Amino acid sequence: MKIKLLFLSFSFSFLIVTGQNTPMYVGTYTDGFSEGIYKFDFNLNTGELTNLQLAIATENPSFIAYSPNKKYLYAVSESLGGTIASFKIQEYGQLKFLNKVSSHGEGPCHVSLNKQGNKAVVSNYRGGSAAIYNISRDGKLNEASQVFNYNTTDKESHAHSAQFFKDELYIADLGMNAVYQYKLKNNIYELTTPSIFKTTENPGPRHFALTKNGEFIYIINELSGSITSIKKKASGFEQIDFDATLEDTYEGKNACADIHLSKNELYLYGSNRGENSIAVFKRNKVDGTIEKIQTMPVHGDWPRNFTLDPSGKFLLVANQKSQNISVFSIEAATGMLTFLHSVKAPRPVCLLF
Asked: Most buried of the four, 139, 269, 341, 346, by CB within 10 Å?
């Protein structure tokens, strides 16, 4: 009886320990030491990253995304003749290749899925296009159902990211200085707003974050080192704020990259490549405006993308050039960051929980 109880106690302890960890996948560029998509174990209590493994060998998976049920993973291949691939997640986190299709443009740099998990959208930076795909029940991608080409005779498009929201689709175009809004009608996405904000400058909208109710949209601008804050109204869209991501004293080159809201939507984070920092903003949940409260060095070079862990207690940064991932704790009361530690990773570009 004592042996049985000891065994049950050991088993229970083992379950507690393993329950502290969650997988984190890493999209990379494979022009160096990287071979494809990697996986870490992340400790939700301590913020430690351990057990680095190659999940699957694949070329330049620079951006990756889950299906809503986390049974499948999708990755762009930012290589000549761009593609988007689907993978099935195996029992121990390894990935099994399912299929791949054309991204319909060079330099695919972003992929996202709708909440139902039956549609994906890919943005092609060099091709200046975006493509929508229907996803089968087995996780495989069908050929593109719609392709939007944004290049004109006098301007060069650089579509950089896209997100579904209910029956809407938003696409950020860095080259055209626009964020397009589409609406789903008869299973086809139709353009309803050529751009949700207007500018005569060249900010270069790259990524954006939406509040859970879709009322506010925060756009990080790669070229101007700024965030444009937009409020969605019944009559259209209104710009409510425009804030610098850089310190006033910084004079070097910079290219903003990624942007995320905290889980409680009280704080907003943006990455600066050049200043090599995360800009932290406090958000007014009533009027949607933001105020910068911290500039946190990333302890690395060229913070491409970053993410918040499932608990909302940690922020992790992929430093592309220095080939490391930095982990920060998030102070619940203030949203501010504290550096914890860093681990080496081969050419990290995108982090996925």
From this structure: 269
